[in-house]
Amino acid sequence: MPTRRDLLTSAAAVAAGTALLQEVTSAQPNPAANVADRATNIRITGLQATWVNPNIFVKIETNQGVFGWGDLKGVDPRVSKPLVEALGELIKGENPTRIEHLWQKLYRSHRNMRGGALMMHTIAAIDMALWDITGKLHGVPVYRLLGGPTRDRIRVYHTPQARKIPCYPLEHSTNPQEIENIVKRIQQTRELVGPNGAVMLDAHSAVPPASLIQLAGAIKPFDVLFIEEPAVPGNIEVFKRLKEQISIPLAAGERDRGIYEVLPYLQEGCLDILQPDCCHTGGITSMRKIATLAETFFVPLAPHCTASNLGIAASMHVVASIPLFLIHEFYPDNRGFNPANIARADWEVDKDGYIGLPGGPGLGIEIDEKQLAEEAKKPQNYRWPGQKLKDGSIADY
Description:
The chain has helices spanning about 5-25, 30-40, 75-90, 100-105, 115-140, 140-145, 175-195, 210-220, 235-245, 260-270, 285-295, 310-320, 370-375, and strands at about 45-50, 55-60, 70, 155, 160-165, 200, 225-230, 250, 275, 330, 345, 355, 365, 385-390, 395. It is an alpha/beta fold. A five-stranded parallel beta sheet has the order 5-6-7-8-9, with helices on one face. Its EC number is 4.2.1.6. Keywords: Lyase. It is an enzyme of class 4 (lyase).
């Protein structure tokens, strides 16, 4: 049995060790102590929204001098700019690292405006900026905060190894020549990428179901990776009908926002691949949840992405952290999506058609604020898109 002297000596040693540990962990250079303090005291002080066609660049500022950026696109900027500024009122004074809490606060802020394109696209930009701040605060890429990398590189298209062929609005009843034209383009693309490459067809919700069934049969010999947007979202029965009659994998999801809208596809087994767009579906927070939901059905993601480098990076950080992934849409040089070289990144596609994991800290994107201000001075405009059929009626596209 230990004596009283032994116990006192042991207690003194423990106390001395504890004091030493506290002294070490409280030292100024200690990253853990510094991060904890900054994450506790940081607060959002403001939100700025700058319109440069076709994007709204959203900047969130804090009292610690750390700021984050988000990409707002895919909706009318004349409406989304004042909306994101109004939603900024809900997060001012909040701790930006409480990302899930703030996402819920924005999403549930108005019962009559919950969900939908305008709200979800706008929330996405704010969410990206919050993740950007949090990553910078901790000095790590965002994917490190999402559980760390699950892969070493990310497969992308368009590259010499992977190409997607778009369809344009077809009449309600197609003719053989229209089918043949698409088949010929698919065949040429297969010859271009070779037997080890990927060929995809984007039906763009613009091919009538009966015509798509015919078309799918005609392109079957060319081993298409997937048919994208086989139907207009809204009626799950159409997707089920197509899935029953088409053996090529079907993919969709860019216009289905959040976990609630993608769930029916998974429950009914009518999509083989999900294509959420980080800028459309509520940002990194929402896209990560969709990936987890899809994982339970063994459905991989092939994210839709027509965004600036900010939106590309946000999506890539999610992809870097999830287990089931197929291929990522990638157009960093398209000035229609990435205006005036405002959001800068060093993307490099390797010989196999892959890029490395996104850098950091945060999203790892440099914003040229001087260039942004100059571009914002120019006249901005927005024109409603739309398509018509040959008889003048309105087409889906």
